[in-house]
Each structure stands twice: as C-alpha cells, then as structure tokens.
Design a protein that fits this description.
This protein has 143 residues and is an alpha/beta fold. It has a single domain (4-128), classed as Diaminopimelate Epimerase, Chain A, domain 1 (Roll). The chain has helices at residues 11-22, 41-51, 80-103, 107-125, and strands spanning 28-33, 62-68, 73-78, 141-142. A four-stranded mixed sheet has the order 3-2-1-4, with helices on both faces. Helix 1 packs parallel to helix 4 (107-125). The radius of gyration is 14 Å and the shape is globular. The two termini are 18 Å apart. It comes from Horticoccus luteus. Pfam families: TPM_phosphatase (PF04536). This is TPM domain-containing protein. InterPro entries: TPM_dom. Residues 13-120 form the TPM domain.
Length: 143
C-alpha cells in the first residue's frame, strides 16, 4: 500500500461491487477502513467483525475486508461457515490479488477485485435463497 494521504477509494464503486456480489448469494460483504494504525490487521479485523455483528448472520457467511492505510496493512476474513468450506488458501489468493492492485495505488480496483472473488465463492457455496434478506449494511464503514 502507499501512504495514508494518498489512500482513497471510490465509495459508490465499492458499494456497487458489494451489491453485485450479494445479488447472487445469501452471504454478506462488508468493507471497513481503519483511520488509526494497527499492529495486527487480522486481530483488528476479527475485533471489528464481532463489533459489526457479522457473526450474527443467519448462515454465518459474512466476509470482512479490513483496510488500515496508516499501517499499510489489510486483512480479509470470513465467518465460520465460509472458512470451513474454503480454508486459508482461498483468502491468501484473494489477498495476493488485492496486493497487486494496492501496490499500484489502485485501492478501489483492489477492493473490487477482492469483493468479486469473494462474491463468486459465496455464490457457489451459499447461493441466494428466495427468502434472502440483506442482513448488514452495504456502505463502507470507517473507524
């Protein structure tokens, strides 16, 4: 990633990517941008995952994209049912692809790419049901 001053994302594009992913799945996708530095992106992502009530989804199939620009760090974590079906390698692949975008300063593209990859997995493992409801907000969360 680059310096915090140059970090910006196109909020409408990210929200559109989240909504496009969620149209095909019962899964939930959130993006959180931390304004403070982090010593451990994964631990902070897990803390925010709980705080954002992502463990409360009906199928335990939420995904959080946590970005901490001041620390030049990010994490992608999924709830228990997602992790049980895809394991660590999937998340490593998503993170590697996002890193390529982030290194070029394309933060919006990196998040869009990660959201699309996660959305494809969610659609395969957790297809949208007729009674599906949007359980969590689609907007980018900032902390």
């Amino acid at each position: 990633m680059t310096t915090p001053a140059s970090f910006s994302v196109d909020h409408p594009r990210i929200v559109a990517a989240i909504r496009a992913a969620e149209k095909r799945t019962s899964g939930e996708v959130r993006v959180l941008v931390a304004r403070r530095p982090t010593a451990d992106a994964v631990a902070d992502a897990q803390r925010h995952f709980e705080r954002l009530a992502m463990t409360q989804t009906r199928e335990r199939n939420g995904v959080l994209f946590f970005v901490a620009p001041r620390s030049r760090a990010f994490a992608v974590i999924g709830d228990t049912n997602i992790h049980a079906r895809c394991g660590d390698s999937f998340w490593s692949d998503v993170a590697a692809a996002m890193t390529d975008h982030f290194r070029r300063g394309d933060f919006t593209g990196g998040l869009e790419h990660g959201i699309a990859r996660a959305g494809a997995l969610l659609a395969h493992e957790f297809p949208r049901q007729s009674d599906d409801q949007n359980e969590l907000p689609d907007e980018i969360e900032e902390d």
